């Protein structure tokens, strides 16, 4: 845990940064790094795990900061895994390459450094000053401007003290590999070919129908291959880690002038591709990530957030969008040129029922089978579906999966079966569903008639998408940088009696009875809470199971809340969503710059009689209460 030090001169708590401890380092040329090596630099610790969409957002948010303060700031990624697969060093090395992480990364599979810094959420950012003290903590995303202001103050302070040392940091780039495809994500079938999203090459690739992604199977590339968001001809257009692909019905394509909708994930856009000449057009999104507010209206005026997959679904009358960034499903109408929320509340979790009240968890794969839309909810390791309800509207159901912290590789009855972070689903000829069980390296089969789960194939390198072509399943083996056909005709599914696992993240002990929940937020330097139009903060609390809280669930404006924890429930998960609006604190400015900070936590809780009666979650700033 963090050690709180009270100095005689300031009489306020100062936190000496604990040492960085883990299994090894990446992006350092084989060198080990200690805090002593970083003395004189401002150090930004980014606690992340590569399954987490919010962590991926932060990687992109930090790139401009790293460039702006290149000679004084050292970013260290501390990779603290959620899933078992993420603890594999080879999988971590692949993820560091896949997401273009251009700073040193500490491999922390046992969560030693995570616990030393008392981290409670992915992602968490910790700033350490040149003298080795923690000066700022921020959980979640959207903190880039606050960090920039704190870093600017630290530069001025420590330059004046003579404790700031400018110069290069310890990052050593690894050699760049060469393959025709690099971390492909999804695949769809065209009349005589396959279209693949070549994610790490920031482009789309059309392959021969029998191709595997090798050089000899490439027919054409759509996209320049550099990260960007330009529209235009195939060699001019650009994407940023494109993922899902949806082929429009011919009559719809004829009306809108493009054939395929692409989930351009990191650009927060949907793109349209005209297959006749490969021309690319932006059809939805502003390029800005949705934070809060309007999520319905003209498609080009509404912010999206990490669209991961897309599927044309006739009952909904449009393209359903797996909006992984805020745990919802969107609906894009290409003919009307509109987009709106279709399902979900933005709370991360697993809750069935009416579409508008359901909880999702980073939906990453979509497929239509009959009148059902099947989806892979990666963070709950769940297979779920949406279907029209008899009363009108749509209903969400779960076939496999129990929540945010349970996973494994186990076949059998669906209520006992386990997956591990699936990213893709596909229809099989008999009406059953194939699941790209990504972190288990397997393709699983779910039979809706018998409600049984089995394993079709294993030993695949992070399968992330699949499509049925002439009765054969074509699978994207993302970490192998190729397509595979691992289920030959006639192969019988097998059963795997695997073990169950739980996320190893430490639980927070709480006492039964009254407990104070405090979300700590301090506006960044030069800003104050924005009270011009009413309360500037909002706090929403839910829990799983609902019986965990006797009192305290619901929505209010204060960032502190009295909870009453049940004495009959041994453990559960607190779902906390907090937000705070702040603006520049300059009365001379008529229109100050304002920002909304938002974070959600899924806090595993263990109820014990000797547990504390306060739970603090730091959204931004420092908690000086002596946690």
Automatic annotation (TrEMBL):
<feature type="domain" description="Thioredoxin">
    <location>
        <begin position="11"/>
        <end position="156"/>
    </location>
</feature>
<dbReference type="Pfam" id="PF01436">
    <property type="entry name" value="NHL"/>
</dbReference>
<dbReference type="InterPro" id="IPR001258">
    <property type="entry name" value="NHL_repeat"/>
</dbReference>
<dbReference type="GO" id="GO:0016853">
    <property type="term" value="F:isomerase activity"/>
</dbReference>
<protein>
    <submittedName>
        <fullName>Thiol-disulfide isomerase or thioredoxin</fullName>
    </submittedName>
</protein>
<dbReference type="InterPro" id="IPR011042">
    <property type="entry name" value="6-blade_b-propeller_TolB-like"/>
</dbReference>
<dbReference type="InterPro" id="IPR045302">
    <property type="entry name" value="NHL2_NHL_rpt_dom"/>
</dbReference>
<keyword id="KW-0413">Isomerase</keyword>
<dbReference type="Pfam" id="PF13905">
    <property type="entry name" value="Thioredoxin_8"/>
</dbReference>
<dbReference type="InterPro" id="IPR036249">
    <property type="entry name" value="Thioredoxin-like_sf"/>
</dbReference>
<feature type="region of interest" description="Disordered">
    <location>
        <begin position="215"/>
        <end position="243"/>
    </location>
</feature>
<dbReference type="InterPro" id="IPR012336">
    <property type="entry name" value="Thioredoxin-like_fold"/>
</dbReference>
<keyword id="KW-0677">Repeat</keyword>
<dbReference type="InterPro" id="IPR013766">
    <property type="entry name" value="Thioredoxin_domain"/>
</dbReference>
